[in-house]
Amino acid sequence: MLDLRVIREDPDRLRASQRARGEDDQIVSQLLAADEARREQLSRFEALRAEQKSLSKQIPKAQGEQKQALLGKAKQLADEVKQAQAAADEAQRELEQLAIVPGNLVEEGVPSGGEENFVELRHVGHKPQLEKVRDHLELGELLRAIDVPRGAKVSGSRFYYLTGVGAQLELGLLNLAMSKAIENGFTPVITPTLVRPEIMGGTGFLGAHAEEVYWLEADDLYLVGTSEVPLAGYHADEIIDLADGPIRYAGWSACYRREAGSHGRDTRGIIRVHQFHKVEMFSYCREEDSRDEHRRLLTWEEEMLAAVEIPYRVIDVAAGDLGSSAARKFDCEAWLPSQGRYMEVTSTSNCTTFQARRLGIRERTDNGTRTVATLNGTLATTRWIVAILENHQQPDGSVHVPEALRPYLGGRRLLEPVT
RNA sequence: GGAGGCGUCGCCUAGUCCGGUCUAUGGCGCCCGCCUGCUAAGCGGGUUGAGGGUCAAACCUCUCGCGGGUUCAAAUCCCGCCGCCUCCGCCA
Questions:
Q1: Any idea which nucleotide's C1' is nearest the CA of A239?
Q2: What pTM does this model have?
Q3: H or E, element range at A312
Q4: pLDDT tens by residue, A222-259
Q5: Closest among A256, A302, A270 to A167, alpha carbons compared
Q6: Distance separating alpha carbons of residues A347 and A355, to the nearest angstrom
Q7: Nucleotides of B strand lying within 7 Å of any protein CB atom
Q8: How far, in Å, CA of A17 to CA of A102, rounded?
């Protein structure tokens, strides 16, 4: 949700932001009108209510006929107050419904356009020179690391088992990510993965992409698609202290996605699955610090990619592909030898105050409180195994283990096919 | 799953039975000022948050876990929900 003050004071900025996203800027005028209407209804209600209050004070003192007269008057006034309140509530609701429509104000410098209009910022690492390329699933099966048929048997399509070195690789990768996060000052957190509707909605995941989210009807709980959700909810309705700098959490969780709109995409292997694990960085900071914090999150992501020796590129995601809550988003995409393309492995978003406003996360200032900024970024996920297997494959189907992961794989430098 | 108890402005707490004088009491902590060689103590004032309003104030509305209801009037009565605690049952 946007700050209404921004809309009042600088509607043109919101119009420009809407256009950059490729969305309608008419909404801005509608918002201003709704805001004005709400203000009128509210002041009418407040005036009536004040009158009612003073009348209520006179009643217990009055006697006999005078009291009866006051009671009659009060009763009439009570009806008016109720009507005025209903009108004010309605105006408020209308405003809120409009206010959730526009996405976050796009940060300056974001490329405009849609999904394909991203800007490549840099390429890092070297693509492997391979004569014969096996894809991650073939390699995973040779290593007895990935078992898709049994995943499908037990749970359906887009489910899988990680077995043997596959399970070790996953645990190692996530542990490495956690260790690095802790070194960088993050507090490690294992989060709930079932959350209430307010939290899911407050984080912005029940908007356009509600279809992506699993919902447990019997309990009215949602399965999170990322620990960003419970980490954003962690300080919901709290006033936090940012005097000593950003508050940083590294969340470890299972993630669940319905992948409802992606039939036929990435159907092979474990690139796009319903359940995976992720270590997610999450920062709370002051709005004016959020740009710097965003760059730091990106740096930490790149350090992690360097640690597992994967070639990647960094892209600056275009305005139309930001999703509603991000003001800017950088993705790191790993090279995928089997497909000759890049695949998203991290994504870091600066949500500025967009999420925190809905969730009521503020800090104290000299005159009152104000909404903080939230940011998130991926540190490692199950999908990384795809990039690790493919980029480190050897001609015989074995896989080189990046040095940083060796401690988690019994010191092994090479994973070899099981015969 | 069963039974009972609880939720008040940072923390603790009075108020809830019996609706109006609650504009929510007191203490602790914190902030400002006064006083006192320093410290401690003492004295006076302030101290939930949100939305309006103002140059700034004053001031107005909402806020006693959340939502609804009854009433001229709700912290107080009624209903629903959420959370916490105790005991019992079940369970990794």
A1: B49
A2: 0.91
A3: strand A312-316
A4: 899 999 999 998 888 888 888 888 999 999 999 999 99
A5: A270
A6: 17
A7: 20-21, 49-53, 60-62, 71-73
A8: 9
